[in-house]
């Protein structure tokens, strides 16, 4: 839930740092100690960065498209598939971390999920190249 709230808030405001300043005190109050505090802060930080990266009103997104001298809307639309793929894998990984609150178990599972996702994308691309 923290990850999704952070993504939405950062996307709507266009700032990851503003999202940090709003959500981190709330997260620290909700989970004052233990392993869930670390996972919750990680979900807050990564969700805020993801939402900021996807937001068309983010200063970093505007600067990147201006620096690359490309159309701003086109730049945002080309970044969305990458960001949404990683956000989906991260969301599933945070769900797993909620049920297995041990970083030494949850983190390797997240790495394997990301690797399998990238492998599936690669296989789909190879099939598209061969048949197309």
Report on the architecture of this protein.
The chain has helices spanning about 1-15, 15-30, 35-55, 60-65, 70-100, 105-130. It starts with a helix and ends with a helix. The chain is about 85% helix and about 0% strand. The mean pLDDT is about 90.
Low-confidence blocks of residues: none
- Proportion in helices: over 70%
Q: Look at the structure and give the mean pLDDT.
A: 91
Query: How many DSSP helices?
Result: 6
Q: What structural class do helix, strand and pairing data support?
A: mainly alpha
Strand-and-helix sequence, N→C? HHHHHH
The major pleated sheet works out as: none
Rg measurement, Å: 17 Å
- Bin the strand percentage: under 5%
Principal-axes shape call:
flat
Amino-to-carboxy terminus distance: 40 Å
Q: What is the count of β-strands? A: 0
Give the gist of this structure.
The chain is mainly α.
Brief descriptors of the model:
single chain, mainly alpha
List the helices and strands and how they pair.
Blueprint: H1 2-13, H2 16-30, H3 35-54, H4 59-67, H5 72-99, H6 103-131
Helix pairs in contact: 1-2, 1-3, 2-3, 3-5, 5-6
